[in-house]
Amino acid sequence: LVTGSEDGTVRLWSNYNSGGSNREPQLVTAWQALPEGSVSSGRSTFSSTGGGDKGLVMAWHQKSQMLAVAGDSRIIRLWDAERELRVCDLSSGADYAATCLDCDQSAGSLLAAGYADGAVRLYDRRLPPNEAKVYTYREHVQGVTYVNLRGDSGSLLLSGSGAGDVRVIDTRKHSTAISCQTSQGMTSMAAHRLADIFASGSMHQYIGVYSLNGTALNVIKYHEWFMSSHFAPVTCLAFHPLRSHMAAGSLDSSVTVYSVEPKR
């Protein structure tokens, strides 16, 4: 388990899923992932641009054990987590803080970063660090909430902003393949790695589930009646990598897990 803090520190933990045993989580290693002053405070949950003050943002590539980190900095720093060595610093080419980050899960060559000004930038880490930026997409008018590289070697780029607009971009043609609108005031978004679905959460106590072509599949929202479940503004979403499970974190520090599978 890897965690990032607003001071730019990254920590790696083991035994975080003890399976009912009494073993405590163990800190394996920790280091300063970004230079001091390169990470914003992270104390503001929602910003006027919709992207939020995210502080340190990270992306993990499982096969190569690579960790990419970014923040309020002009670089995206790549780390070899297994050897605890810095690989390189990619020039971001941005004047605004990074709000989200992702890498393709096949070769891990492509990186996508969303920024507070609404821009999404695509990077190729096989190129020299100062020339790694491949393309800049300006599809959003508010801060980018989420980016996700999908398809073969990151051929599709999914992104969403605080205005609720979602784009699916063909990175080979650098053109928008699908455009749709979700709820205004989007604060979080997540996509399933295998299924073509994504979910968006908002500060209005609302979670929408959509297919990748923009069709609304389900809505989870707060209802003021007896026996209704408590539902606070959503701050983060995550899908299980294999199963049809979704976790939602809320502003009241609660975590709720949703599933379409019957209980056993």
From TrEMBL:
A Pfam family that the UniProt record links to this protein: WD40
Keyword set includes S-adenosyl-L-methionine: no
WD repeat ranges, renumbered to this chain: 1-14, 227-264
Keywords: WD repeat
Protein name stated in the entry: Uncharacterized protein
Domain of life: Eukaryota
One GO process term, biological-process aspect: cellular response to starvation
